[in-house]
Amino acid sequence: QKEVEQNSGPLSVPEGAIASLNCTYSDRGSQSFFWYRQYSGKSPELIMSIYSNGDKEDGRFTAQLNKASQYVSLLIRDSQPSDSATYLCATMAGGNEKLTFGTGTRLTIIP
Amino acid sequence: KAGVTQTPRYLIKTRGQQVTLSCSPISGHRSVSWYQQTPGQGLQFLFEYFSETQRNKGNFPGRFSGRQFSNSRSEMNVSTLELGDSALYLCASSVRDRGGYTFGSGTRLTVV
Q1: To the nearest 10°, the Cα dihedral for A8, A10, A16, A18?
Q2: A42 touches chain B (CB under 8 A)
Q3: Distance separating alpha carbons of residues B49 and B103, to the nearest angstrom
Q4: Mean of pLDDT over chain A
Q5: Best of B21, B38, B44, B45 to mutate (most A CBs within 10 Å, chain A)
Q6: Does A103 touch chain B (CB under 8 A)?
Q7: Cis peptide before B8, with omega less than 30 degrees from 0?
């Protein structure tokens, strides 16, 4: 079992709709959770961080964390073609500055 | 504000050679990490430095090493290069523990 699992996709969403990206993790010691966006040929870009259970909103992005279910999600509202990218979920255990990444979900927004 | 700067952007090396990659973190960021990204394995953690000390190390052979200088700049070295070392090497920095890491543009290493 991989430490951080994501559906590799591709996930296709119509422009203007909500894109929902999911991630599960196996290490119960994980305390910090991040979503990165990576465009083809570019490096990962941090878009959201979340540390406690519940929702965290930033503009069109909402991160959701459920530690009991070991589940993290990212919602993108009003999806735009510029949101087309690979989204990487990453976790970090307490006291360890190591990011463990999932393999990423490729998202395509259809105009 | 300048981002994380990595040099060089591209490198082509021959098997058996060694290579040194450089990273300048964002000003004020003291934690610097290195990652290897390949199509097959994705992003994998190499090591993390804080105040010139290696605090965390990933599961890579001893051919992979690194260091951090007093100005937080970091280098990583790969000796006795193998074809499988071909990858994008990413440096990332963070202003605090458990904070999000900002990645540089990476160094694309090709071993032939």
Answers
A1: -30
A2: yes
A3: 15
A4: 95
A5: B45
A6: yes
A7: yes
